[in-house]
Amino acid sequence: MGEDKRIRKSKAALKEALLTLMKKKDFHKISVKELCGLAGLNRSTFYANYRDTDELLLDVHTDIFRQMTETLGDDWTAAYDAPFGKRKEALSRIIGYLAGRQEIFSLLLSNNDENMFEKHMTDYYGKLYVPQEASWRERYVFLYHSIGSFSLICQWLEERSPCGPEELAELICFMAESGKERGGK
Predict the structure, then answer these.
(1) Which residues are in the HTH tetR-type domain (predicted)?
(2) Rounded average pLDDT over 142-168
(3) Pair 42, 62 in one domain
């Protein structure tokens, strides 16, 4: 059963307030009092839903990852050992998706002390796509490729897309391919 409508509305107001405040100041300088004032809620409502602002930020990130996964469907599952063309096509769609939402991603990445966005992303997608019984090697390959790819995509967004999504996807897939040749999996 889903959350109560009031709870969903309160959480949405707090998430919107957090993103608005993150445009103006560092995440770690945002207080619960400020969030609640902007959201038009009291502190008890905040604490009924979140332990602290870190948990609220995690909820914002999780919403974004969930939306990305729903929007992109099977593109997220283009396996490491899938044919080059299939991986390139899937990654190209993912990069295009991120570019289309550059404002939100730029905000989350520019206000990203301790690399929380990357940590939350690798945790979220690792749970989805790396089986619990995976070897340490498989987990490390996943981390290497997801963090490396993510870093390149972030740089690409920061530089305002110096090449097209297809070209960046091809580069990332090429690098992954050369890693496989050296025993990456």
Answers:
(1) 8-68
(2) 88
(3) no
